[in-house]
Fold these 4 entries.
Entry 1:
Amino acid sequence: MTSLLEVSGVSVSFDGFRAINNLSFRIGPAELRAVIGPNGAGKTTFMDIVTGKTRADSGTVRWGEKGLSLTGLSEARIAREGVGRKFQKPTVFEDQSVETNLLMALKNRRGPFAALIWRPKPAEMERMRELAGTIGLSAHLARKAGELSHGQKQWLEIGMLLAQEPKLLLVDEPAAGMTPAEREKTTEILVEAAKTRAVVVVEHDMEFVRRLNCRVTVLHEGSVLAEGSLDHVTSNKDVIDVYLGR
Ligand SMILES: Nc1ncnc2c1ncn2[C@@H]1O[C@H](COP(=O)(O)OP(=O)(O)OP(=O)(O)O)[C@@H](O)[C@H]1O
């Protein structure tokens, strides 16, 4: 399998405490992966390392066919390479419409100078509508983002990230605070997004992970404890001991 992202033997310590301990992880160019693990397992720190927010003390993070080293690159540069990240709290522009939010995300792709003289072209309007369809908000284009439900805001933000055409999308607990119907739609959006890019979903909700129907990586004390199908990892004795059985 060719990898889009290959993390090898990465360790990070905070004041002598090893938050990430010889971690290795790889994901292909069009793959959906769930990352689970107990509190403090290192899930957030892992994402911070990939996005360049936190520097690895040792190990390598390789990206793309050419194996570009991401360690040492700035967060902005890594984002430009195609790494997008969705945090738990949505950061949409509440006073702007769904349409404007999506258009602004498309506009941002073109860089700050192009944005100054930017008017949406027919192709961009079309892409905006396509994105709205993907995230289930076609009927809400004129509504202010601030009026949307929690789930709809999360989808809008996913749409805004997809507008940037990331090659890898990191998503932190997308199902938190959602209704069952919203969770189902979120599953659909993520599964669809992962057909054309890599998507890593950090999630605690096991039912949600089951519906994603993808390979699962279990982190514990900064390392991979188990990896495979959800059934495979949830029947692993170590996983039961440190995570499920508690
Ligand atoms: N900046 C920091 N300074 C000191 N310790 C940190 C820092 N960031 C993380 N840690 C510690 O590293 C460990 C891993 O934290 P991390 O947030 O990556 O875990 P997590 O798996 O995301 O947990 P959760 O499920 O609670 O979000 C924890 O023990 C945490 O306290």
Entry 2:
Amino acid sequence: MPSTEVKKDRVGIDCVHYINGEYVHSKSGETFENPNPATEEILGTVAVGGKEEVDEAVSVARKALKGEWADMPSRKRSNVIRKIGDLILERHEELATLESLDTGKPLWLSKSVDIDRAANNFHFFADYLTTVGTETYQQDDKAIHYAVRKPTGVVGLINPWNLPLFLLTWKLAPALAAGNTVVMKPSEVTPMTATVLTEICKEAGVPDGVVNTVHGFGETGAAISSHEDVDGIAFTGETVTGTAIMKAAAPTLKKLSFELGGKNPNIIFADADLDDTIETTIKSSFINQGEVCLCGSRIYVERPIYDEFVERLTAKTKEMKVGDPFEADTNVGAMVSEEHYNKVLSYLDIAKEEGGTFEIGGKAAEGFDKGYYIEPTIITGLGKDSRCVQEEIFGPVVNIVPFDTEEEVLEQVNDTHYGLSASLWTTDFKRAHRVAGKIETGMVWINTWFLRDLRTPFGGTKHSGIGREGGMHSFEFYSELTNITIKL
Ligand SMILES: NC(=O)c1ccc[n+]([C@@H]2O[C@H](COP(=O)([O-])OP(=O)(O)OC[C@H]3O[C@@H](n4cnc5c(N)ncnc54)[C@H](O)[C@@H]3O)[C@@H](O)[C@H]2O)c1
Ligand SMILES: O=C/C=C/C=C(\O)C(=O)O
């Protein structure tokens, strides 16, 4: 059993697998070290799960689909799920600390976004499950047709590092609500909060075998994706990983839910409320070090306000503090890993080569002996085919472009393989509605960004995803319908 007590000196935890209600090491004994990206200190070790651990986890998850979990009345299952949310709130400080140690994100952000939302994911689906219904049709005097809902089965949940507990629980809560059993694979970069979560699940009354975690790298995820006894994979991560998972899952025809990368546009018309726009654009550009799939990294500004917008956004960016995630006034923490830090810096070199101008930033932040800090960066002057405009950087880097007409901006906005989200700014609601309908993304926010209601369809089009999460949409993925017809 790992110690999940977070020490005052901010030491992390060792992460081992959780299978059939027990914390277990890998049979191979293989582990790797988990570094704190803000200090480069080692937070603990992480077990590497192989085929043996995945097989064991899938086998116990399959068995747990029957018996206590299947027989649990929905009201009781709802109470267990609600209790997980309650216990997350009880351990709020500890979980937020672990999340910031693992990711490098500011502690205030872990508290106000990641951990609050993780609890809310369980509270929301605890309520949702008690109201969800199915279809019934009466066909004249011939027949009655009705559908009954069953769990999808054993579901693999494969997760990224940017919002570790938030995104893992966004899958786990509906999976449990619909009666599934799961094998989770947290990101190897951020394994700590997932390790604590299973302890919480046990305390809340989730029967052994229902929730299992196997740690490891991509190979561990691949072993889950290709496993013949796994019925579905819910994956959030890079588009190219989604392609690999789809291939691995094809021979066993699994159900797939994909939340993938983005290259999201912000479109700002000259009539927008500029104070409001700038304030939100700072968030959509740099919150969580720009490591949010929804961050707006391509900013299109109508020409009459272009100069003023660039000047004001740059001035606001200058006020941002890059620093220790545990200092209350830090706006931008450390990038999540050395590898990702180098990737983002390589795009800043590409921007230079492609003739871009850095209005601010453009390099590693100064004054840090250790850790992976990058200055919030605003680029102008890049062409539409620039790699920095077309490829997902996933860092505190945005590109601003002027536009003259609606048609022109829509052409540029849609000129991408990605299709996750967009943020559109105008006080003309006819235009807002018209333009929003022509943007090729799964979500459009008008005069706001990342404003969430957990009932709404969340997800991307094109290379940004397959399927939607949220309310009924999550339930559709995590359940199978059997239609029953009674001849009258
Ligand atoms: N659309 C969304 O809702 C959303 C949300 C958050 C992040 N993202 C995307 O996630 C990416 C950042 O996260 P990341 O770098 O952790 O993504 P990633 O694809 O590198 O890794 C995600 C997970 O997949 C696992 N994995 C890697 N190779 C695998 C394979 N071959 N088979 C099975 N599993 C494998 C990893 O170990 C990890 O657990 C960005 O592209 C971002 O846009 C999307
Ligand atoms: O980084 C990606 C953010 C994803 C957010 C959600 O999945 C959500 O708000 O439900």
Entry 3:
Amino acid sequence: MKKISILGSTGSIGKQTLDVVREHKDKFEVIAISANSSVELLLEQIKEFKPKYVAVYNEDAAQKLKTMIPSDINIKVLSGMEGLKTISSLPEIDVLLTAIVGMIGLVPTLEAIKHKKDIALANKETLVCAGKLVMSEAKKNGVKILPVDSEHSAIFQSLNGENYKEIEKIILTASGGPFRGKKKEELLNVTKNEALKHPNWSMGRKISIDSSTLMNKGLEVIEAKWLFDVEVDQIDVVVHPQSIIHSMVQFNDSSVIAQLGCPDMRLPIQYALTYPERLENSFERLDLTKIATLTFEEPDLETFPCLKLAYDTLKMGGTYSAVLNSANEVLVEAFLEDKIGFYDIPKYIKETLDAHDSIENPTLEEILEVDRWTREYVKSLIQ
Ligand SMILES: NC(=O)C1=CN([C@@H]2O[C@H](COP(=O)(O)OP(=O)(O)OC[C@H]3O[C@@H](n4cnc5c(N)ncnc54)[C@H](OP(=O)(O)O)[C@@H]3O)[C@@H](O)[C@H]2O)C=CC1
Ligand SMILES: CC(=O)[C@@H](O)[C@H](O)COP(=O)(O)O
Ligand SMILES: [Mn+2]
């Protein structure tokens, strides 16, 4: 039995992780679950999976959950950041699955690494804001960082048994999002509801907006750099609207290896939890004869400037990617609250990057301070 703790069990990835557990009840045991404030769903999950711990970040919600749990259920209710850190480092867990959204996942993930827990990583913001630190801590503690993000799982699977030094290029596929093929003039006044309509994946709100701006691909470029230890010019993005090829690796002998499958996050989640083994499951099989065409095009960096901004921050180094990420988190939230327009997202990110004094090799405390500064700066721009 693999013992799992889940950061963000009530979200899109969290719920699909529990689907994987349901599929393999004899293989996985859920020791801890958590959320920000979705207590009704947490209660259902507690009744079904019987975890020993639940962490609710929001203090009021944690208190509310305590009153909702029937007296015959024995579970420890924790709260705040301390709660998230505790469930990330429990002695009895083998792996922490990070399905929480945003850079708030950084501190508990580092806590898990310090306690030598393997990480099944969906929370890409952690590597975007602190990739160097997280990967070096993982190496120091002998911890595996197992990618859940579909593209990075595809790359990881394509690299199975290969020598990472022989990678020539990583080719990240992008769906192009809901606005693929459109030009800036057509997108100036798009609404959040239009932006939330991803063509292939049903995901949380933040990542759905990121896909519509192509920031998601930018964050994934940065995530790939740290996971696979490649240079920025070794990472290409190709738009592949069908989301069947989840990504590829080109090797130094010109061979290209790819991973394909139906768009279903349960597979990368399962693979991260069972690696290096594979487990038979009931998920839909890919039938290539039913797919008329697989197409590929270059990303349009003029219409989608967020992707270029992400590449730029990798080239500039230091804490620029952390600023990109924190600014984006604030701006996506503001866009979802109808406070800013679609193109205000790249505009204010650029202005914040221009105002930032970068720090080379930042410590955790410095990254947290950069996050605080960035949020304050961006909010002052919006007002
Ligand atoms: N969805 C997908 O298919 C994919 C997602 N990812 C990445 O996975 C991560 C999760 O995405 P997704 O599942 O879509 O997001 P969702 O918005 O669907 O879920 C987010 C989860 O995080 C929890 N959460 C948010 N803030 C806090 C907090 N402060 N403390 C504790 N828990 C918190 C939420 O709790 P609550 O319900 O209470 O708000 C919820 O459980 C993101 O980093 C995303 O980029 C990567 C690849 C694919
Ligand atoms: C499922 C997944 O991994 C998402 O990150 C997905 O890739 C988003 O799609 P695009 O960003 O390519 O539109
Ligand atoms: Mn992805």
Entry 4:
Amino acid sequence: MSDQSRRPRRPAKPYRRPKKDPVRVLAFEALRAVDERDAYANLVLPPLLRAARERGDFDARDAALATELVYGTLRRQGTYDAIIAACVDRPLREVDPPVLDVLSLGAHQLLGTRIPTHAAVSASVELARVVLGDGRAKFVNAVLRKIAQDDLDGWLERVAPPYEDDPEEHLAVVHSHPRWVVSALWDSLGGGRAGIEDLLRADNERPEVTLVARPGRATTDELLGEEAAVPGRWSPHAVRLTEGGEPGAITAVAEGRAGVQDEGSQLVALALAGAPVEGRDRMWLDGCAGPGGKAALLGALAAERGAVLLASEKQPHRAGLVAKALAGNPGPYQVVAADGTRPAWRPGSFDRVLVDVPCTGLGALRRRPEARWRRRPEDLDGFAPLQRGLLRTALESVRVGGVVGYATCSPHLAETRAVVADLLKQFPDADLIDARPLLPGVPDLGEGPDVQLWPHVHGTDAMYLALLRRTG
Ligand SMILES: C[S@@+](CC[C@H](N)C(=O)[O-])C[C@H]1O[C@@H](n2cnc3c(N)ncnc32)[C@H](O)[C@@H]1O
């Protein structure tokens, strides 16, 4: 007879159904969609929140918490992975992705929010029971109890190498960015530790919602009447909503007279429109227009000057979005679905041309919490020929004396200065012009002639702009 069989049997604990917490379940579903379907959090979350509100499961506070849990968990995934790895006895790649999502959500509640420890652990274990089952909930409980033994600073000291030994890896773990991204951002930014740390920190903050009052269609005064609205920092057409809110519910936005647009994007359109050109100024081209934010601002600016905008976009469904963004534009415009590297127009047709080219988006990490983990250094090679092709066509499309704006929402040097330098070699009849005076009042624009904006310096996305004039 074994020892066990001689022990009196303990009465089994009565089975208790797990408590289903709609906020955590929804956050988990959003994380699974991001992982399994390569979905974008900013696209996946709104319909889930809407459905929860319609079911009566959610109020505004629940929606805010679910959003914070999803965005915070995704942004800080690199840091949390390093901490979770220190608390499990197998490589993270051997932990099932849904289990890892529950652990990351729990780690975020423990280390990145003010939710009390016991509530964070018990809510995560309940979530695990609902979505993973009781067996794996025990594992989740054990790991989260280990994580709860220290705070974030304590964990970072343990899991990140000292800055002096390996600065890039230290910053990658502490500020939750892939190492190659830290390295690329630092190359572009230059300077010492303080600047890059401020930038990485800014990438982890929720950006304010910024509106543009499209000239001739809405005024900033109209938008400043909204709750917690303040003027933009740099663009005369910008209004910031300091408490976020629902921009779609604002009348001017719903009517397309205003839109949601980062000030960096507004500055790109304004600088191109403001660049001096001699003689004719009637034909403007946006060669990569989808979904149409810059085209809508350019269209309104063109209308004020009696110019016509042609907005061209390769993907038909995105050309449809451009048409929607431009509907009601006060002046003439046309939207076409066309490949910007094989133009359907004659060379030299335009006085001003914008190419806001497809890129890695490393300048907009604040908005796309999962993007940093999805991007790979090889993506740069994929974009390189297209970026060069689009800039070449833009230079061919502008008349002598006209201006081309080359823009990216990435500060990666391979997508910015390297592209412009290559094209200037191939296309000797073009000169860079100083973009800085065309962004009046904006400080810290570097040595020029191109411009790189930064989240931690300007509060904008890290937009890049080079302005080129065709000389022959
Ligand atoms: C960075 S986005 C432009 C954003 C836009 N300027 C705005 O402010 O809303 C780049 C766009 O270029 C489009 N694109 C990609 N390849 C293209 C090509 N060969 N010709 C024209 N557009 C292209 C993409 O579909 C994408 O919509």
